[in-house]
Design goal:
The chain is an alpha/beta fold and 540 residues long. The chain has helices at residues 13-18, 153-167, 196-206, 227-230, 244-247, 268-287, 316-329, 346-352, 356-375, 386-390, 396-403, 436-446, 475-480, 490-493, 499-514, 521-525, and strands at residues 4-5, 22-24, 31-34, 61-63, 72-75, 78-83, 92-93, 98-99, 126-131, 137-138, 142-147, 176-180, 216-219, 256-259, 292-295, 300-305, 333-336, 412-416, 426-430, 450-455, 468-472, 487-488. The protein contains 16 helices and 22 strands. The longest helix has 20 residues, at 268-287.
Length: 540
């Protein structure tokens, strides 16, 4: 990617913001975006002499040359559409003037054709984390209470409030208590083939590294998703030595379940008391844990974007991509996702696969999602939002080209289907829907212990289970949402920082946040969105 800032980088910031500023992403592009806060009025003369024929909002495209009807419109050096009418140079190029290209077919793709020189190892970076018995590392020390069904959510929530008020102050080394509330568990076709996705998602979230191996379940009793189906023998990988005296060294771990329909429960408070009593045992064990120095290779980072705008692919996402490469060089695990938001870059992705088998796995996930959308009589174009378009993104092709750069340049070495657990380090394509909440939920299930989320329009998104580092694409957003955004990547657009500068800032902040030395703004305000399980199977 090349970025041409059409203003001198040495211009003082106050002058720079007033001077017309456009950003052209690739030498072959015939459009550029307006970077000035508030956009530019008609009649503005750009560096080079081009005069704007229309008022162009910030983040929106201006035609750099005359574009006759049917002409290919290029951004990122990629066709993002065809002109539906003649577009004169200097005109505002918006979604109503563009015909979106067809999706790239999934046959005859380049398969593992890019063979870059190996990235040099990045050594010596560490953080303070919680080492788990299974070898994974947590960045937080949290008691999570798994629920088999939505029916128990109210009781569990009541109990959690009591636990936080009465018990948590006695256990200062425990960061939080969270209920893993969701909308699944009953009223669903639980034996349908695709039901495996929500079931394994919830199972793997229960085993997230930030929960320290302490598995506690609240069940109703009559639900379809019984505790033994959610967490069958062997799903908790290690024999629980606390139970050896009772069950023998060769026995399976006893699953800790509070069943609300048990005869022993008489009245609401007896149910709550049972949950609180069981939680205390888990809190005691979690409280004994201590942070220890571990290599940066123990980070498992999920990257995502939401509320994207035209700056996402200019500032924040390229900085995340640079940081992704740093993490891979340090031996860490990084997941990028959002199937519809990378679908139009499939040829780039399969070419970067380490092997043809990895490339074919990506094709398989794309084909599955194409078919899933087709069953709903839609296609990838259903992805873009009014906010995306107001922020300058004309269609999903343009959005995808800006989204895919979060993956950096490292080889793609692994592919996960929705709900699967990560088993390999390096760069992984974790197939998920692009919905912020479903994507975050699935990345949690994969084993994410730290989350990076970029936004241009702005969103207060957060997760209770992992720290979420929020990256603003524009300085104006970072200024207005100063106590919600953790990093301002808008400095890249105004020329006061480089992609590399912001990428390194992000990397160092990750180590501080992972160590507990710093909290993200979402943690500070306790902004936590709900878990949303992806259920492509029928609801009955």
């Amino acid at each position: 990617m090349s970025q041409a800032l059409q203003t001198p980088l040495a211009t003082p910031p106050a002058t720079r913001s007033a001077a017309p500023l456009t950003i052209r992403m690739h030498a072959s592009d015939n459009v550029a975006i307006v970077a000035n806060d508030g956009g530019l009025p008609a009649g503005t003369e750009l560096p080079g002499g081009l005069v704007l024929r229309d008022k162009v909002p910030q983040g929106h495209k201006v035609a750099l040359v005359d574009l006759p009807q049917g002409a290919v419109v290029l951004r990122y050096g990629v066709p993002i559409g065809h002109a539906l009418a003649d577009i004169a140079a200097g005109s505002w190029v918006h979604e109503r003037l563009l015909q979106m290209p067809d999706a790239r077919g999934l046959d005859n793709l380049p398969m593992a054709t890019v063979k870059p020189e190996p990235l040099s190892a990045l050594e010596g970076y560490t953080f303070e984390g919680y080492r788990n018995a299974d070898g994974s590392v947590g960045t937080r020390n949290i008691l999570a209470i798994t629920q088999t069904v939505q029916c128990v959510a109210g009781v569990t929530s009541f109990a959690v409030q009591r636990i936080k008020a009465e018990l948590l102050p006695r256990f200062p080394n425990v960061d939080d208590v969270v209920a893993l509330e969701h909308g699944y568990g009953c009223g669903v076709a639980i034996d349908a083939p695709d039901a495996v996705i929500p079931i394994r998602t919830l199972r793997h979230i229960s085993l997230n590294p930030n929960f320290g191996g302490e598995v506690m379940v609240v069940s109703l009793g009559c639900e379809k998703l019984q505790p033994e189906r959610l967490l069958p023998p062997g799903s908790i990988p290690l024999v629980d030595e606390r139970n050896v005296a009772d069950v023998g060294t060769s026995a399976e771990t006893r699953l800790d379940v509070v069943c609300l329909q048990d005869d022993a429960h008489v009245g609401f408070m007896s149910m709550v008391d049972s949950i609180v009593r069981q939680a205390e045992e888990h809190l005691e064990r979690l409280n004994a844990r201590r942070r220890e120095t571990v290599p940066a290779s123990e980070l498992v980072v999920g990257v995502q974007c939401g509320g994207s705008d035209a700056f996402s692919g200019v500032t924040a996402n390229p900085a995340v991509g640079f940081c992704t490469d740093l993490l891979v060089r340090a031996g860490a695990s990084v997941m990028f996702s959002e199937t519809t938001e990378v679908r139009d870059g499939i040829a780039q992705l399969t070419a970067r696969a380490t092997t043809p088998e990895v490339a074919q796995a990506m094709v398989r996930e794309m084909a599955w999602y194409d078919a899933y959308l087709q069953r709903g009589s839609v296609d990838r174009s259903a992805n873009t939002t009014p906010g995306n378009k107001k922020g300058g993104l004309s269609n999903i092709v343009e959005k995808a080209m800006g989204s895919i750069v979060k993956s950096g340049s490292a080889p793609i070495s692994n592919v996960l289907a929705p709900g699967e657990k990560l088993k390999h380090k390096g760069l992984t394509y974790a197939a998920t829907p692009a919905s912020d909440f479903i994507c975050g939920t699935l990345q949690l299930a994969a084993g994410m212990n730290l989350h990076v989320f970029t936004t241009g329009r702005g969103t207060p998104y957060g997760l209770a289970a992992v720290p979420v580092i929020k990256v603003a694409t524009r300085s104006d957003l970072a200024r207005r949402w100063h106590d919600l955004m953790d990093i301002n990547a808008g400095t890249i657009a105004d020329g006061s920082a480089s992609i590399e500068d912001v990428g390194w800032e992000m990397f160092r902040l990750m180590l501080d946040v992972a160590s507990g030395r710093k909290k993200t703004w979402a943690e500070h305000w306790k902004l936590h969105n709900a878990l949303v399980l992806f259920n492509p199977a029928p609801v009955t």
